[in-house]
Amino acid sequence: MLRLFVFIICILASSASWAQDGRIGVQTEAEEKAANQSQTPTLMLRKNQPTHPERILMAFYKVAGLQPDFLKWAEKSPFLKDAKAIDTNTITSRENNRMSQAFTELDATEPLVVEIKIRLDNYSTLQEVLKLSEFTPKTFFSYSLYDESVAIVPKDIANFGTIKISKVEMDEILEKSRGAEVTAELLLKPVVGDAKTPFVQGKQSYWLLLAEIGEIRFWSSGAEPKLLWMHRADWFKPKEDKTLMNLKSGMGGM
Prior knowledge:
By secondary structure, the chain is of the alpha+beta class. The protein has helices at 9-15, 29-36, 53-64, 70-74, 88-105, 167-177, 239-252, and strands spanning 3-6, 112-119, 123-124, 129-131, 139-145, 148-154, 162-164, 181-201, 204-219, 227-232. The chain has a domain at 3-16 and 109-252.
């Protein structure tokens, strides 16, 4: 399960040189510009499935330039839980080979998808500003699998703690969402894996993975989520855009 942890920024700063300086609610001109860059949803985008923890763990190793111990991981495979003793070696070997192949084929530049529930009720109609307490310099996303844990730290996530949204657009968002709580979907590009010193939270250790925010999307709840708001970084060029443009081009020729 995805868990959102909040921890003291000075601890994070000592664990990784790229931790943020963290000013909650205070923005520079550059930060405000980044936070204000929103797009009206015009593409036929669909909500992604969150990235599996195994792929996140592999992405950390890939970015950090390390080789995982696949046999060790395979020996902790959930497929062994209800397996017969006679099948243990076969399953372990199969999982070892599968993960080794998956790691070889893994493209670490592909975005990781994480989700978090956010509330939209802290909106100022006077300032036309939405405050999100879920996005601070102390935010990270943690995953545990095979007795290893990784914490993804989205770079500059605090820039989205304050978002400039017009009253008209906010009214449309609230009407579509039909509630104050929605899902924020983050598409993150891994850039740095800190394999030197793990961050320790209580009795749990985490390898830290810094990721750049390619895109943030707000989705309504329910069986058929509606896209409410999105921000896309200038450098982010998702493959699905090309697919949608090809689809649009094909429809135009019909």
